[in-house]
Design a protein that fits this description.
The protein is α+β, with helices and mostly antiparallel strands. It has five domains: 212 residues, no CATH class; 176 residues, no CATH class; 49 residues, no CATH class; 222 residues, no CATH class; 163 residues, no CATH class. It has 27 helices and 24 strands. Strands 15, 16, 17, 18, 19, 20, 21, 22, 23 and 24 form a ten-stranded mixed sheet that branches. Strands 4, 5, 6, 7, 8, 9, 10 and 11 form an eight-stranded mixed sheet that branches. A hairpin with a 2-residue loop joins strand 9 and strand 10. Helix 10 packs antiparallel against helix 11, helix 13 runs antiparallel to helix 14 and helix 17 packs antiparallel against helix 23. It is globular and about 95 Å long. The chain starts with a helix and ends with a helix.
């Protein structure tokens, strides 16, 4: 109990010094807890939605992942509901019509569909819809010119009853007016919805009033869902998918589950980085506190306290810090989750706080994380505290120095760094990306740990180099700042390491992102001959009306259709493989100048011919002139001659197998022919601007598709990668904030540690302004030291990663020097900001009081 009381007294006595460490623990725990609460809430929202819309048994068309992507929604006969309603065990049967690949536009052709990737769903306003939605204004749709839209879409775009809209489906465009607004009784996770009456929905979405999308069955009393499913399957036979309510809800949840899991693990990964950075802060805090309490610890040993008791005293303080920081972090995590929900609402995914889900495991994980991390981080300082000799402590000799430990640390760190460098180098020599990725991961881990371990050794070299450039203009004050930074290399190394980790990741991702953009631009310049590319950003197939409009545009030398065709290939060696073929018009050989290892790509568009990539040819021993059996899904089997073998050294269409659309048409029936996924166009000589304007005019009624020239395409690619990197940088900002807190804490504790020294400096003439400048310059040097290590390490990681990407065709290494230089100079600003409070407090010290301090 004496040890506990002593720990409590010390914790309270040093509460000011513990605040920043507690904040670091709090931020780390808050990010983890907030991630768990946010993703659990999203799961709850989707589960409620799927449960409210799932019937006891649902019947739809059989799903065939290998089916051709014709663009038409799957459907079943409309009389299926009447047929099943007569079955024993069926209380009621309702049919439903819907299509999830719809575009909704207003009367000015502005796209009203979500920009978050959520679908726009069109259907019929029937009994199934009324289970989860209700009209809040207007009336239900009647006739082909009336629709109901959901309230979230109406609010976002200022729509009201009577407004004109257009519903664009694969079968065509329908002009209508809004007859009513409907609101979800559960939370709408972000989809846009529009409803017709039943006959209009069947005709406009499915192309026939004899078809429906699904049949929903309600089981009679005493009949289980499983029993009803079995009876329905026996009645219908093949060609249908029959699912219970649980199976339907689980299937829907699985479709969004991958996205939610990716989001959860990505956010937890960034939280883990902040936890790692926080460990350095806590280690530094307790190391300095132990050093400052050397005399106190010696007195404890002198009056009979054993090493274990001193050790436990420090660990109990760490435990208290972990508990306080974790509890605050859990509470802050709920706030972060609510903030993320509000943020998602601004981009169209509406999450209601009434669904806020805090599982019992979340606070337990938060507490366990905060406590374990804090206690583990404090273990080494506590162990050193237990080694304090009573006599040495009473002589104020400080904690025992262990030269042998420093030597072992240096040797170990150099070995780890060498192992990391070897891993990175071997990754760049790998023959496949799969083989190299494991070596890259090991190289990153070992080099990071190695730099952390040899941080004190590097501090002596790098800090002197930085000081020679940065501090030489500040005279004696600059020299004192340099000596302060070098006074305890281990402390300086640990403080800088926290900043190093975050900036290393920033640099690595910047190099990878910049190299991806540069490589793609290089590939576009070398291989793309088409002037214009027409496609959907969300993967929608191009409708027949769009294809017709593009072909009819003036000032075009040629237009190329491009389709994906599913098939099963049988190589000459007899091995089978399901794949997707790239079917295009012969002009595609001009639109994409793909290099070949053998043959000419243009020959692949001849009758019953095709191309194969080099990897496939090597795997199966194929040469030009060999024949491959191609079984088209839903069609016949053809024996196609290999007319070209394309190189694998490209990132555009890498691994594609080409053949002519005319060849596919000979073996696939018309109703199985896939829709265009892309279109390419070449302008007439000297008519590029007129052709671009003509295409824009022809496509103005189809805002779901984009027309881009090569400059547009490059800019879009750069914007997409830039947005992704900005999001990652935003998440890494948490780790950098924790690192800044580490610098602040180190300086604050250092000021306390050097109280008497500061008093003596002031007594011999150092002004307050010079004192503050000294502390600020010390902070700048430490920040630049961490930034230099981090950016150098990150560029090495990024360069090694780019070499692996080169195996996938991204062969240009591009170092974003403006970003690297900006981050490095920004680190100096970070150092200045971190030093503001410690420098201010140092300047306010009473000179006589400071000199009298023991």
């Amino acid at each position: 109990m004496t040890v506990v009381r002593t720990s409590l007294r010390n914790f309270v006595a040093h509460k000011g010094r513990m605040v920043l460490s507690a904040i670091a623990v709090m931020l780390s725990v808050a990010f983890v807890s907030g991630t768990l609460v946010f993703t659990d809430t999203m799961n709850t929202t989707f589960d409620k939605l799927f449960a409210s819309t799932s019937s006891d048994v649902t019947v739809t068309a059989e799903r065939n992942e290998d089916a051709q992507q014709t663009g038409k929604p799957a459907s079943i006969p409309a009389d299926t509901a009447q047929r099943l309603e007569k079955l024993d065990g069926v209380a009621s049967a309702q049919s439903d019509v819907y299509d999830e690949r719809i575009t909704l536009v207003d009367d000015r052709n502005e796209n009203l569909s979500p920009t978050t990737g959520a679908p726009t769903i069109a259907g019929d306003w029937g009994p199934e819809e009324k289970k989860s939605m209700k009209l809040i204004s207007g009336k239900a749709p009647r006739g082909p010119t009336e629709v109901v839209v959901d309230a979230d879409t109406a609010d976002k775009h200022g729509l009201a009853a009577g407004d004109a809209v257009k519903v664009i489906s694969f079968t065509g465009t329908t002009e209508a007016r809004i007859s009513g607004i409907a609101k979800f009784t559960a939370t709408n996770p972000g989809a846009a919805l529009v409803f017709f009456d039943r006959p209009t929905a069947q005709k406009k979405l499915l192309g026939s009033t004899d078809q429906v999308t699904a049949v929903m069955l309600t089981a009679a009393e005493g009949t289980s869902d499983a029993q009803l499913k079995k009876a329905v399957a026996a009645e219908l036979g093949g060609g249908y998918q029959v699912r219970t309510a649980k199976e339907a809800a689980d299937s829907a949840a699985d479709e969004v589950g991958e996205f939610l899991d990716f989001m959860r693990y990505a956010l937890l990964g960034f939280a883990g980085i902040s936890v790692l950075v926080g460990i350095f802060l806590i280690v530094n805090t307790f190391s300095m506190l132990v050093a400052q309490r050397t005399r106190e610890l010696g007195l404890m040993r002198a009056i009979g306290a054993g090493r274990g008791q001193v050790n436990r005293s420090v660990l109990i303080e760490a435990l208290l810090l972990g508990v306080v920081g974790s509890v605050l972090g859990i509470a802050a995590g709920v706030g972060i989750a609510v903030g993320l929900m509000q943020l998602m609402g601004t981009v169209g995914m509406n999450l209601d706080t009434s669904d806020l889900t805090i599982k019992a495991s979340t606070p337990l994980v938060g507490l366990l994380l905060g406590i374990v991390v804090t206690v583990l981080a404090a273990y080494l300082p506590a162990r050193r505290a237990g080694k304090v000799s009573p006599m040495a402590a009473l002589r104020d000799a400080g904690t025992p120095a262990d030269g042998r430990t420093g030597t072992v640390r240096t040797v170990f760190g150099l070995l780890l760094t060498a192992a990391g460098a070897a891993g990175l180098w071997l990754a760049t020599r790998a023959e496949t990306a799969g083989d190299g990725s494991g070596l890259l991961a090991l190289g990153i881990v070992f080099s990071l740990i190695g730099f952390v371990v040899i941080g004190p050794l590097l501090a002596g070299l790098v800090v002197r180099a930085i000081s020679a450039v940065v501090l030489r203009f500040f005279g004696p004050v600059g020299r004192m700042a340099e000596r302060n930074a070098l006074r305890n290399p281990r402390r300086t190394g640990a403080t800088a390491a926290a900043l190093m980790i975050g900036l290393a990741l920033v640099a690595a991702l910047s190099v990878v992102g910049s190299s991806m953009v540069a490589s793609a631009n290089d590939q576009l310049d070398k291989t793309v001959g088409a002037d214009f590319i027409i496609a959907s950003d969300v993967g929608q197939p191009l409708t027949p009306a769009v294809a017709k409009a593009v072909h009819a545009a003036p000032h075009l030398a040629h237009v190329t259709d491009y389709k994906n065709v599913n098939a099963e290939l049988t190589a000459p060696d007899g091995k089978k493989e399901k794949t997707r073929l790239a079917a295009a018009d012969p002009t595609y050989a001009q639109d994409l100048r793909t290099e070949t290892d053998a043959g000419e790509l243009s020959a692949a568009y001849g009758r019953d011919a095709m191309s194969v990539p080099a990897a496939y040819a090597k795997k199966h021993g194929i040469e030009v002139g060999d024949r491959v059996a191609v079984a088209f899904t839903g069609g016949k089997t053809a024996r196609l001659t290999v007319a070209a073998i394309t190189t694998d050294g490209t990132s555009l269409d890498q691994g594609a197998m080409y053949l002519a659309i005319a060849t596919v048409e000979r073996y696939l029936p018309a109703d199985e022919m896939p829709a265009n996924v892309l279109m390419f166009a070449q302008a007439e000589e000297g008519k590029a601007e007129q052709a671009y304007a003509a295409l824009k005019e022809r496509m103005k009624d189809y805002p779901q598709y984009q027309i881009r020239d090569q400059a547009d395409y490059k800019q879009t690619l750069q914007d997409q990668i830039g947005q992704l990197l900005n999001m990652v940088y935003g998440l890494l900002a948490l780790a950098i904030i924790v690192a800044v807190l580490g610098v602040v804490n180190t300086l604050a504790l250092s000021v306390v540690e050097r109280t008497r020294e500061i008093g003596l400096l002031r007594a011999i003439g150092l002004s307050r302004r010079q004192l503050r400048r000294m502390i600020r310059l010390e902070s700048v040097v430490i920040a630049l030291f961490g930034a230099g290590l981090g950016l150098g390490l990150g560029m090495a990681w990024g360069a090694a990663s780019q070499q692996l990407l080169a195996l996938e065709g991204l062969g240009v290494l591009d170092i974003p020097w403006p970003t690297i230089i900006t981050v490095f100079l920004g680190s100096a600003l970070v150092g200045l900001v971190a030093a503001l409070v410690p420098a201010f407090r140092a300047g306010r010290m009473n000179v006589l009081g400071a000199i009298a301090t023991e």
